[in-house]
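The authors assume throughout that readers already know how a fold can be written as discrete tokens. Each protein is reduced to its one-letter sequence and a matching series of backbone shape codes. I therefore recommend that a typical entry be quoted early in the introduction. For illustration, here is how one protein appears when written out as sequence plus structure tokens:
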Amino acid sequence: MSASDVLDGVEWHECQTLAAFLLTVPPLTVAEKRNIIEAAAGVLADHYAHLPHKRSAHGIDPVARLRALARSVEDISTETGFHAELVQVFAEMRDLHTVYTLPTAYAGMVAFLPFQVGIAHEGATRQVIVTHVIPGAVHAPFAEGVEIVAWNGVPIWRAIEKLAAYTGGSNRAASQARAVAAFTQRPLLRLAPPDEMHVEIEYVTEAGNRHRTRLDWRVCRLVSDGHIAHKPAAPASPHCLTLALDDMGDALRRHRKSTYAPHVLHAEKNAFHVEHDEYHDEHPHEEEVPTRLSQVRAWKGVVDGKPFGHLRIRSFNTRDPDGFLDDLESLLRRLPQDGLIIDVRDNPGGLMAAAERLLQFFSDRPIQPVRMEFLATEANVKLCGSQTPANPNMAENLSRWLPSLKRAQQTGSVWSNAYPMTDPNEIRSAERVYPGPVLLITSALSYSAADIFIAGFRDHHLGKILGVHSNTGAGGANRWTYSDIITLLKGERLTAGRPPVLPGGADLRVAIRRAVRVGAGEGQELEESGIEPDEVHNLTRADLMQGDVDLIAHAVRMLRS
């Protein structure tokens, strides 16, 4: 399948089988594997902002675990086994900012099955329902609406529990939500390929008949998003150093779009003008409002004769925050002004400044950005010392953190002082745009910059929060890559012995600064704690199959109250 074919969507029958794809992957040598592991152990020990918390909260020592793995790496008999071992070490930290990314051969690839699932609640009963199917890829009676009851002979809820332990969610709600999201699609950027080449599925039709089917895993390349560039930023560029993004969640979102809404990709490719990027049914009783932002969708709705606005923000990943916010300002002014639902479900984050500056559109009072702090290590002293106003090649001025990091070397403090990454004056230069009441919808897949947006919404008392899970993804950090760190420390003694580029094009991402809340949540860490909603709405079958009808009704009731 050529790159141009991919841009018009994923064709199931043209994708490689997983077995065929794995034959094309060049293996790493034992020495290369050991280099990757040792680099990972060093970066975690020197820079991982949450390391003390993870050791204490979960009784783990990822640095010691990695060093033990380096000593026995020659005993791992398969290539996929090596990647799975390394992925598991990182998953135990329950931090999607801090991950191992697989070599170049896996980059931009996703292993997937030709359908999607969701959890439907009917009272105390839960069901795993097929919500979308690729046309022509499966045979009747397997179709949208059937209930999955077993997976390779394992009861479905036990299969979800097993996968949840592997996905690295920060809390129980996030782990389960991530397992469901990754059940039929595995971005190979940070998940090892499935062990099985195919799956045996038992399901029950809506008529109550039980059936089995077998489906092969296929592999395709991820598609870029319209005019929102997803190419990696240059190492140590201002854009990549200020990201707060869940790469896996972003990859899942892009794959769903390319697989189930290829017409949207065609519009993005040919016109750079996108009216929507959702792939499920239209919302009943709502009129769509056009926008050119590929990660945003908006509607006007009416309930009991009263209008309301509905704004879905699927990502904050933009390299043009000014343009992003200008478009959102224009969109907000075109929506009904006496009630707004903001929906950030499954938003994987992106640029922190875009998320935090948006909050000011809903408040007359000044919005305070979250504060960020470094782990107090000699390596971070060197890192911040290398990026000062005196350095003409600086990517970001880190000198604010330097004095407290130096003091910590003498006092034994664990972290530096906390300072904002987003300029408070830049936030406050904006004015309130939306005058009416606002309600926020969240999920356990809302992560990173989206978590920071949700925290700011709560801590500045902007409105009520309705969650489809009992917590958010709880990712509170700014993440950098191994390449960023090596680039900024170039020439420093601490990089001695570490390769400038990891073997095979593998990479590491690490939470370099942790987020500390402000306002009503002053001083609380966001990592793992997340934000609990004011009310929880358990998605129903009607929500999954008919465009969130019950969820929107619940949201409108809260908004009106």
